[in-house]
Design brief:
- Strand 2 and strand 3 form a beta hairpin.
- The N terminus is likely disordered.
- Helices cover about 35% and strands about 20% of the residues.
- The protein has two domains: about 180 residues, Sandwich (Jelly Rolls); about 100 residues, Orthogonal Bundle (Arc Repressor Mutant, subunit A), CATH 1.10.10.
- Helix 5 crosses helix 6.
- About 30% of the residues are buried.
- It has about 325 residues and is an alpha+beta fold.
């Protein structure tokens, strides 16, 4: 008798793949390019870039291209909760017709409208980003921290609070503001840095009613560092030295240099160069001055040195920046 070697009945049967081990279809596309739009708010045009992070969570970059001249405009954030970081300029928030809560560069704010009208005002052009959460994602914050204030989770109560970032929290905020998300690598970095930024923010007293009872007073050194930063931000066109800055703010040179590295994530002169480049970009976008005039205005007597510094900062030559109106 001849045996058949092709008898399917003699083959061991593989068990069917359990449905629970199959990949479930995703409801969102991770690391995709940001959506872009220009949002009209009053007579303003706000440039928006929106990065989907996780279901119910997104990172939004926004540029307010001109001052509101004291006018209060409707805040564009419409989600249940937004955590805002101001990377450049000055902005003020107000629920309904309440007093304005002011935030300068390096500050963060918690904004929870709870269906009430929220407004903002800018004294100058402003760059900021915010993490926005829907109600379910906001509730999941309790998974990160057991001390999240119940006010942030109650859908019927509006909430506004703010504070100043320092150290790693500040450095991450500035890094996030500079990432464009132009490729997958940058979008991976954005998600990683966003999660770290959120984790550090959850340690702030505003998230904990217990911690918030104890007033957090800035130390003398922190006030001196803030004063030094303001000098560099407002007098960016002048020459500066560590010694002179140290004497002006009454902080020794060692603490000044170490403090800038810890608070701003860069050196004193790195911070000055950053502010010079930010201001130069604003001038170039305004289109009212020549490159040489702008170089002189931000402290560069040599246009070639200015052009090199600008390209290092933004990857473009100054002449490649088109005026935006």
């Amino acid at each position: 008798m001849r045996l058949s070697l092709n008898n399917d009945r003699d083959k061991p049967k593989m068990p069917d793949q359990d449905a629970s081990t199959r990949s479930a279809p995703t409801t969102y596309c991770p690391f995709k390019a940001p959506s872009r739009l220009t949002l009209p708010v009053g007579d303003q045009a706000i440039d928006i870039r929106r990065f989907e992070q996780r279901p119910g969570i997104a990172l939004v970059h926004a540029n307010v291209n001109q001052a509101t001249n004291g006018q209060r405009l409707a805040w564009p954030g419409k989600s249940h909760l937004q955590i805002v970081f101001v990377s450049q300029g000055h902005i003020a928030f107000a629920p309904n017709d309440s007093d304005l809560n002011h935030c300068a560069s390096g500050d963060w704010a918690l904004v929870k409208p709870a269906g009430l009208p929220f407004h903002f005002s800018c004294q100058q052009t402003c760059q900021l980003h915010w993490l926005e959460f829907d109600e379910q994602a906001a509730a999941s914050l309790t998974g990160f921290s057991d001390t999240v204030s119940p006010q942030l989770l109650d859908p019927d109560k509006s909430f506004l609070n703010s504070g100043s970032a320092a150290g790693r929290l500040l450095a991450l905020g500035q890094e996030l503001s500079e990432l464009e998300g132009a490729n997958t690598r940058e979008r991976l970095l954005i998600e990683a840095k966003t999660l770290e930024w959120l984790a550090l923010l959850l340690d702030q007293p505003a998230f904990s009613p217990c911690r918030a009872i104890v007033p957090q007073r800035a130390s003398r050194d922190e006030l001196a560092l803030a004063a030094a930063a303001r000098i560099l931000e407002t007098r960016y066109g002048e020459d500066h030295s560590i010694a002179q800055l140290s004497r002006t703010v009454h902080l020794n040179e060692f603490k000044l240099k170490r403090g800038f590295k810890e608070r701003f994530g860069t050196t004193v002169f790195g911070y000055l160069r950053q502010k010079r480049m930010e201001r130069a970009r604003e001038f170039l976008q305004a289109g009212e001055r020549s490159v040489i005039e702008i170089a002189n205005a931000v402290g560069y007597s040599n246009p070639s040195h200015f052009a090199r510094a600008f390209k290092e900062a933004y990857g473009l030559n100054p002449s490649e920046i088109s005026p935006s109106h």
